[in-house]
Specification:
The protein has 367 residues and is α+β, with helices and mostly antiparallel strands. It is 25% helix and 25% strand. It has two domains: 55-218, P-loop containing nucleotide triphosphate hydrolases (Rossmann fold); 236-364, no CATH class. The longest helix has 14 residues, at 114-127. The chain binds guanosine-5'-diphosphate. It comes from Oceanobacillus picturae.
Length: 367
């Protein structure tokens, strides 16, 4: 059989194993724009199918960039920088230059200072050992920043191939779809979805006679919240429009629950305000710290939801990380993939509870 690749995700088409990536019934091989069953279902029924692929395979595929010569465009989710910045990127891409793209800026409040945010992103990358040539902020759903980014790519690629890399769920497919539409006026070529791990192969999209834009598989980061929640809950915790910050004036001895997926205890400090940046669909409950455990025991999955029942079956237990924030700077307490809470660090002690595999951390305030 001639080797065929799915027009959706780029995976090698096969007709023998319905559970493995790339399966297509033999009867559909005649079609012009061939799709694997998974992409077909996604495209026509908006339904995700799980296929098994190991993290090692992802890394192996992506590592072939190392020996190539091109520009690397690393797309991160501005809402989950911690979960989407690929710390091993320098190892993966070797000497190839990197442009860092912060996607989903439409989720941040309109008043956000974009220049400051770019600087923040650049220094976050640097702290993680990633030196980047340029930083661009975009919204691939709304189109914001795409023109500037296209120019930056053109300038930086110096007539070489462009590799698009990112972890799953950062909006890489949406971004590439938009690039393609912009340059060719072509419709949907690559599948987009809520679920991580959808893009399984390399897809080459010609830029000119000699060079291509190459979409690489989404790298799975086990520290992403997305891996521990049901499809339904993922829709709730993934913001789909501008986040409305919710402000709580708290006294020490109070606790905030973010649904029932995370919790923040204000352990010690003067009365202060906690500004919460989460999907508008995640309810926040305030309670007394002394009652917090009991509330969880009695109401998890009900009053405290998400999680729904399906998530509860797989959700790791909550683990506590304590932080004492001093120095007076605005600081974010980050719950990767869920959101963050911003507070002025005037000797504030907090305990952040989050699912074990997705530990909370602190950073210099993003906004
Ligand atoms: P991929 O796994 O990196 O290819 O990510 P997808 O393109 O499938 O996108 C993952 C999710 O993020 C989908 O629900 C998209 O609608 C959403 N998404 C992608 N780009 C943006 C964006 O610029 N803004 C917002 N708000 N959501 C986005």
């Amino acid at each position: 059989m001639e080797e065929l690749y799915c027009q959706g995700c780029g995976v090698l088409i096969q007709t023998s194993d319905p559970q493995a990536p790339g399966y297509t019934p033999a009867s559909s091989l005649e079609k012009e724009n061939i799709l694997c069953k998974r992409c077909f279902r996604l495209k026509h029924y908006n339904e995700i199918q799980d296929v098994a692929i190991t993290d090692d395979d992802f890394l192996k595929m992506v590592s072939s960039i190392r020996s190539a010569n091109g520009l690397v465009v690393h797309v991160v989710d501005i809402f989950d920088v911690h979960g989407s910045l690929i710390k091993s990127l320098p190892r993966i891409v070797g000497d190839n230059p990197i442009v860092l793209v912060g996607n989903k800026v439409d989720l941040l409040p309109k008043s956000t200072n974009k220049r400051k945010l770019e600087q923040w992103l650049r220094s976050s990358a640097k702290d993680a050992g990633i030196n980047v040539k340029e930083v661009c902020l975009i919204s691939s759903t709304k189109g914001y920043g795409m023109k500037d980014l296209t120019e930056v790519i053109e300038e930086q690629r110096k007539n070489r191939d462009v590799y698009i890399v990112g972890t799953t769920n950062v909006g890489k497919s949406t971004f590439i779809n938009r690039l393609i539409k912009q340059s060719t006026g072509y419709g949907e070529v690559i599948t987009t979805s809520y679920f991580p791990g959808t893009t399984l192969g390399f897809i080459e999209i010609p830029l000119d006679d000699e060079t291509s834009l190459i979409d690489t598989p989404g790298i799975v980061n086990r520290q992403q919240m997305a891996h521990y929640v049901s499809e339904q809950d993922l829709k709730l915790i993934t913001p789909n429009k501008e986040i409305k910050p919710r402000v709580y004036q708290l006294n020490s001895g109070q606790t905030l629950y973010f649904g029932g997926l995370a919790r923040l205890d204000f352990v010690k400090g003067k009365r202060t305000s906690f500004v919460c940046y989460f999907s508008n669909q995640v309810p926040i409950h305030r309670t007394k710290l002394e009652n917090a455990d009991e509330l969880y025991g009695q109401h998890i999955g009900e009053l405290l939801s998400p999680p729904d029942q399906k998530t509860l079956e797989v959700l790791p237990e909550l683990k506590e990380n304590a932080f004492r924030l001093t120095g007076g700077e605005k600081t974010d307490i980050v719950f990767p993939g869920l959101g963050w809470v911003s507070v002025i660090a005037e000797d504030v002690t907090v305990a952040a509870h989050s699912p074990k595999e997705v530990s909370a951390s602190i950073r210099k305030s993003l906004l």
